[in-house]
Amino acid sequence: MGKCGSHFRGDRGSAASVNAATPLVIGNQVFVSASYGTGAALLEINDSQYRKIWANDDSMSNHYSTCVYRDGFLTDFTDARKKGRRCAAWN
Which of 4, 12, 45, 48 is the most exposed place for a label (fewest CB within 10 A)? Predict the structure, then answer.
């Protein structure tokens, strides 16, 4: 079994928040997102350390589905309360 080299605890906007979307890993960067006010974060991983590149609830708030990455952009249907699709630059 592998061992946890680093741990990132994002801002949980609500106790009801669920991380149902799968994290996306592109190179040494990881994108995570959740709904209910939690939002999203893009992290850069080097060795066992991470650096937050950006984090907010305005770019993406995945409820159940995972974003699609293509040509430097993320797109998906977001939290139903925010009504619709969003597209965000990867970094």
Answer: 4
